[in-house]
Amino acid sequence: MKLGASTISEDSIIPEGLLRDGPEGPDTDGLRLEDFFSYRLLALARLVDRQAKRSYAENFGLSLAEWRILAILALSGETTVNDLAARLGYDKSQISRAVGSLVERGALQRSANKADQRSSILRLSAEGLALYEAALPLGRERQKELLGPLTPEQRHQLYEIIAQISANLRASEGIDAESSSPASNAV
């Protein structure tokens, strides 16, 4: 599996306006929509998600939400639909559909939540764990292909920058830095 490569001009990598810093931060006068960080980040996220969706569907018959649910449950042991929705940044209805599909497939088990009768506790079945373990190498290979062109120092810087931006956004929304977020838990 190859993620695909494209030739990118220097101008499209770093918009000129972002190279001119002033006392208020980057000079954004004259930037086009394509030059805004949020636009570029969303375009990148959609490209990565589109390729991941295709890979997990073709190889394992999983949607991206289903794969991420398996990954979270493999690491956390058990959780609820509400927790999954919060951790993954999906709507509760999207998670409910993905959970229903995984339950029907025999990959998840539901049990009563004694602490909250309105929800269920979800955990992987033996089949779900086997499916997760079969799909995990694909996720690891995708990670290598995505970040392989970067040096270890660049990867470290990338993760540090993402953490700083995430912390800033959480703080601006009054979200505790320790709480779950899509940026820190997505697989």
What's the short version?
The model is unreliable at 1-11 and 180-186 (pLDDT under 50). The chain has helices spanning 10-13, 16-19, 37-60, 64-76, 81-88, 92-105, 126-147, 152-172, 182-185, and strands at 21-22, 25-26, 78-79, 108-112, 120-124. The chain is 61% helix and 9% strand.
For this entry, give a set of tags:
single chain, 187 residues, mainly alpha, Arc Repressor Mutant, subunit A, three-stranded antiparallel beta sheet, two-stranded antiparallel ribbon, 9 helices, 5 strands, disordered C terminus
Describe it:
The structure is a single chain. The chain is mainly alpha-helical. The chain has a domain of about 100 residues: Winged helix-like DNA-binding domain superfamily/Winged helix DNA-binding domain (Arc Repressor Mutant, subunit A), CATH 1.10.10. It contains nine helices and five strands; from the N terminus they run H-H-E-E-H-H-E-H-H-E-E-H-H-H. Strands 3-5-4 form a three-stranded antiparallel sheet. Strands 1-2 form a two-stranded antiparallel sheet. Helix 3 crosses helix 7, helix 4 crosses helix 7 and helix 5 crosses helix 6. The longest helix has 24 residues. The protein starts with 9 loop residues before the first helix and ends with a helix. The N terminus and C terminus are likely disordered.
